[in-house]
Design brief:
The protein has about 160 residues and is mainly alpha-helical. It has a domain of about 110 residues: Winged helix-like DNA-binding domain superfamily/Winged helix DNA-binding domain (Arc Repressor Mutant, subunit A), CATH 1.10.10.10. It is built from five helices and three strands; from the N terminus they run ααβααββα. The protein has a three-stranded antiparallel beta sheet. A hairpin with a 7-residue loop joins β2 and β3. α2 crosses α5. The longest helix is centred in the last third of the chain and has 44 residues. It is globular, with a radius of gyration of 19 Å. The relative contact order is 0.14.
Length: about 160
């Protein structure tokens, strides 16, 4: 699949309608700003992944499973920094689509291992092209300096939350 995103700029989107959280005058809510940026980025990636019938979290899950398949659900949740409930929902959806299967761990019958099916491996590989196209669009529009600042900012916020 070829790159489908516009080459020159990020897609324009009208501001979201609805009530705004009242912050003290002149003080933006930093969490709100981060969530807004996260939603915009997620939407951009998911628009590219839509032809493959998967969401961004499902794509990330499939890529992680492809790299270390078969993998225990608990280990996969830790690797992706997800709670088991969220992971379980996404895995069930992928299982319904025939993209992953669960197998009983022969060493521990209580644990199920996740592995990609052939169809899942194919979708994961093909969707990687769309993910790379989204990455390239962001890289072109934000540039190395802003992306480096973003990585540094996220690391600092992670440290604050620790």
């Amino acid at each position: 699949m070829t790159e489908r995103l516009p080459a020159k700029s990020l897609p324009a989107k009208p501001p979201a309608a609805g009530p705004r959280i009242a912050n003290p005058p002149g003080e933006p809510c930093y969490c709100g700003l981060a969530r807004r940026a996260s939603r915009a980025l997620t939407e951009l990636y998911e628009r590219e992944l839509a032809p493959y019938g998967i969401t961004l979290p499902q794509f990330s899950l499939m890529r992680a499973a492809a790299g270390a398949s078969p993998l225990g659900i608990t280990e996969l949740a830790l690797q992706l920094n997800l709670d088991r409930t969220t992971l379980g929902r996404n895995l069930k959806l992928l299982e319904k689509q025939g993209l992953v299967v669960f197998v009983v761990n022969q060493r521990d019958q209580r644990e199920h291992l996740v592995t990609l099916t052939r169809a899942g491996a194919k979708v994961s590989k093909e969707a990687l092209v769309a993910w790379k196209a989204a990455q390239a669009l962001i890289r072109r529009n934000l540039g190395k300096q802003k992306l480096a600042a973003l990585e540094q900012l996220v690391a600092q916020i992670d440290a604050l939350a620790a």
